[in-house]
Amino acid sequence: MTGSHTLTVENLELGYGGRTVVESLDLAVPPGKITTIVGANACGKSTLLRSMSRLLSPRSGHVLLDGKDVHRLPAKKLARTLGLLPQSPIAPEGIVVADLVGRGRHPHQRVLSRWSREDDAAVAEALAATDTTELAERSVDELSGGQRQRVWIAMALAQQTDLLLLDEPTTFLDVSHQVEVLDLLTDLNRTRGTTIVMVLHDLNLAARYADYLVAMADRRVYAEGDPAEVLTSDNVRTVFGLESRIIPDPISGKPLVLPLGRHHVLDDVLT
User: Fold this and answer.
1) Which of 25, 30, 191, 232 is the 20 to 30 A CA-CA neighbour of 270?
2) From the record, what ranges are coiled-coil (predicted)?
3) For the purposes of burial, counting CB atoms within 10 Å of the CB of 174, is it exposed (0-12), middle (13-18) or buried (19 or more)?
């Protein structure tokens, strides 16, 4: 059943070479919800997502899908349940859009099985949802950064997993397409119950679209919960080193972060 899978992280330590990026990190992703992860650059957000999808093995601790270590699950079984859109993915040279999106169907195909009507339908639906149908026969190499990003998202959607991890899915997109993509992911969550975990840089978009917000600092989860509980002036100062005021978003009612520059901070002090 969609939305019924659990994804948890227990006492995780991650690193590259001699550098520790994540340590003593615990997180339980709420099933069937949209979770967004925020934090300063190099705080370990992308590294955490890589480990949750088993692209990076932990030094210690565990990532558990339905209580089972993801590193012990058969690769194809994991890929039918959990999908990942990493940062800056690389497409095979010369591949056309429809073929790239079709690769999202590989986990659903068995040895010697033929391409099915269900595969065609899933690819067509993913292309339509990301407004890339007209690009289907074009080479991915010819696309703009924004078009290419929407095609990668289409491939992730074609995989039709119950859990979807996205690392900066709005990268390279203009404002209108950022909102379209996040609306699309919200629709996917609301209609199918897909559990979505995404890393976002934009605090206000993260707050608007999140059911559950996770703020990382000092190599671990610093605060988590409802966006209104996590996005406080004190937390923004600690996590981002930024002075701010928090007001209700007039559209969503979620917290809206108003950064204060040096001059505004000085004005506050003087008045």
Assistant:
1) 232
2) none
3) exposed
- Beta pairing class for 60-65 and 82-85: unpaired
Cα separation, 76 vs 129, whole angstroms: 25
CB 7 within 8 A of CB 195: yes
CATH classification of the domain holding 183? 3.40.50.300
- As for how many domains the chain has, the answer is 1
Q: Which domain holds residue 57?
A: 5-267
Residue type, 118: E
* Orientation angle between helical segments 145-158 and 117-129, nearest 10 degrees: 140
Of the two residues 80 and 13, the one the predictor is more confident about is 13
Residues with Cβ within 8 Å of 103's Cβ and at least 6 positions away in sequence, in order, are 155
Residue 245 and residue 234: Cα distance in Å, rounded?
10
- Tokens found for residue 17: 């070479």
The string of pLDDT tens digits covering residues 75-128 is: 888 988 999 998 888 899 999 999 999 999 887 766 556 778 888 999 999 999
- The residue behind tokens 């997993």 is 161
Number of Cα atoms under 13 Å in the Cβ half of residue 48: 33
State the pTM of this model. 0.89
DSSP codes, 86-146: -SS--PPTT-BHHHHHHGGGGGGPPTTPPP-HHHHHHHHHHHHHTT-GGGTTSBGGGS-HH
Would residue 27 be called left, alpha or beta, if left means φ above 0 and alpha means ψ between -120 and 50 degrees?
Answer: beta
Task: Dump the DSSP string for 65-88.
Answer: ETTEEGGGS-HHHHHHHEEEE-SS
Strand partners, 27: 9
Residue with tokens 């997180």: 27
Residue 205's CB: how many other CB atoms inside 10 A? Answer: 19
Whether 151 and 96 have beta carbons less than 8 Å apart is answered as no
What pairing do the DSSP bridges indicate for beta strands 7-16 and 19-29?
Answer: antiparallel
